[in-house]
Specification:
With about 130 residues, the protein is mainly beta. It is built from 1 helix and 11 strands; from the N terminus they run E-E-E-E-E-E-E-E-E-H-E-E.
């Protein structure tokens, strides 16, 4: 069974940086796409970024492109989201997600219902 455990959330001032990590276990993830979603209070879940476990192609939401970087460490089975130049509107619970598949990465930037596996989430709060 796939397990995803996030860490690294917290409180940061606008303009600062945070690094989120997701420890993945339970499967061999070579055929998986990994990603991050976020959900702010009163808002729908929003796609943030995705990465193909094998090959490492990446895809970002427009709102974070150029500020966030997704990466994976195959040896440690972890996925990382480096968040720079944070803004108050980045405040949300961030979820690590996983889905087995080989479609173009833009496909996975669609509905949250595409993704089968979710972590428990980690809170990120950006103060102004």
């Amino acid at each position: 069974q796939v397990q995803l455990v996030e860490s690294g959330g917290g409180l940061v001032q606008a303009g600062g940086s945070l690094r989120l990590s997701c420890a993945a276990s339970g499967r061999t993830f070579s055929s998986y796409v990994m990603g991050w979603f976020r959900q702010a209070p009163g808002k729908e879940r929003e796609f943030v970024a995705a990465i193909r476990w094998s090959g490492g192609g990446t895809y970002y939401a427009r709102s974070v492109n150029g500020r966030f970087t997704i990466s994976r460490d195959n040896a440690k089975n972890t996925v990382t989201l480096q968040m720079n130049s944070l803004k108050p509107e980045d405040t949300a619970v961030y979820y690590c997600v996983a889905e087995q598949g080989s479609r173009p990465l833009a496909y996975y930037g669609g509905s949250y219902s595409i993704w089968d596996y979710w972590g428990q989430g980690t809170q990120v709060t950006v103060s102004s």
